Amino acid sequence: MLRVHFCCFTAMSASAAPSFRRWLPLLALVVLTLTWGYTWVLAKQALAYAPPFAFAAERCVGGALALLLAVKLTGRSLTLVAPGATLAIGLTQVAGFMLFQTWALVEGGPGKTAVLIFTMPIWTLLMAWLVLGERIRGGQWLAAGSTLIGLLLIIEPWNMHTSLFSKFLGVSAALCWAVGTILIKRLRGQHPVDLLVLTAWQMLIGAVPLVLLAFVIPERATDWSFGYFGILAFISVISTGMCWWLWIYILDRVPAWEASLSVLGIPVVAILSSRLLLGEDFRLPEIAGIVLIATGLGLLSLLGWLAARRAVAPVLSRP
Q1: Could you tell me if residue 121 is inside a domain?
Q2: DSSP assignment, residue 137?
Q3: Which of 85-94, 161-170, 175-184, 194-203 is least confident?
């Protein structure tokens, strides 16, 4: 009898660590969502000190320097394992995304056009199916449908009064993010790349064309005040450097379509932050969209928990 209890305890202890690791992507997602959601408010404040393209370049350079320092302090090697794939990721997920996102803000303002970048999950769903062979099954369809309908209610594509060009720029940013997502999944499936080193290289590569554009495009000078330096430090180190590393970490552990749907909590946090901090009123479609996205994300978490329980059950049932 004692041996049975000891074996069960040993099995439970052995399964505790894998079970805890299973929840690490969820913890990373919570940090990512809260940080990137609030970053929209900070970015709006930062644009009062710096012009758009200079701000995009400055945040990426700061993020790249912070990541390179982290690689150095942790004793990792900066050896580039897959130069071609890393170059493509840096140009799409960093340079292309930042360029089109910033351009969309210039052409259409910080309203609905900018939120179009969160159509990224739709493009990722299609690409993951065609390129990676990932399929949505069972209750996952309900979670996907709930989050995507919630996104449509927040964006309100039927109520957009901005130019077609600004909408095109917002969708282009979403496509760059989706392409970068698929490229990372393919790279990790082919090569054992260190995630922190990969993030540092993609940020460094992506920062180069943004710096060149900042020099070429005529803009006003950046106001290097103490307030802007504080905002830039947070956005560069935490929002750009650390959170892009967290994003690649999440992608490394869950399917691309699931990760892309999970980031739909970001516009929810952005809306809540802007409404609460700036005193703006909530609208009924936004509230409905937030509820649907929260429901979809909750269902995704429940399905992940059930999958983890099913994986642990055979271990506990062993004599």
Answers
A1: yes
A2: -
A3: 161-170
